[in-house]
């Protein structure tokens, strides 16, 4: 349970960093509390997509991942970030990823920040 909560918080932090770095990734809200609530919702949607959708897509794309020496994973992660934005919009959270290349760079930043946070804070189950 601790690991799940830590993963959710790390994802929220990584998404916040990506939104801070790129103008085309935005977390909306009239006030700071609205932004934090939106970020929590987006992180939950992102975690659910990475838990249930990502493994299936990566398994089905395995031949392409192998042929491209793993570069296809960047494209898959970018598309999953765009899917997160679409689902977040559907549930009423104001999260926007404007464009494929922004999603590519945003997914790279999110992956790096998540890896760093997981390395720094080694949370046991």
TrEMBL record:
Q: Which InterPro entries match?
A: Phage_holin_4_2
Q: Show the Pfam families listed in the entry.
A: Phage_holin_4_2
User: Which keywords accompany this UniProt record?
Assistant: Membrane, Transmembrane, Transmembrane helix
The reply on keyword Cell membrane is no
- The answer to whether the entry has keyword Cell inner membrane is no
In its UniProt entry, what is this protein called?
Phage holin family protein
Would you say which domain of life the source belongs to? Bacteria
Which regions span the lipid bilayer? 35-57, 64-88, 100-121
């Amino acid at each position: 349970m601790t690991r799940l909560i830590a993963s959710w918080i790390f994802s929220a932090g990584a998404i916040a960093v990506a939104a801070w770095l790129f103008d085309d990734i935005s977390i909306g809200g009239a006030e700071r509390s609205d932004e934090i609530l939106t970020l929590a919702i987006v992180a939950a949607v992102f975690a659910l997509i990475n838990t249930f959708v990502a493994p299936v897509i990566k398994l089905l794309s395995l031949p392409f991942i192998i042929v491209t020496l793993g570069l296809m994973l960047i494209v898959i992660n970018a598309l999953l970030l765009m899917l997160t934005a679409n689902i977040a919009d559907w549930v009423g959270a104001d999260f926007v990823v404007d464009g494929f290349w922004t999603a590519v760079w945003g997914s790279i930043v999110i992956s790096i920040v998540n890896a760093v946070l997981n390395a720094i804070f080694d949370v046991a189950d």
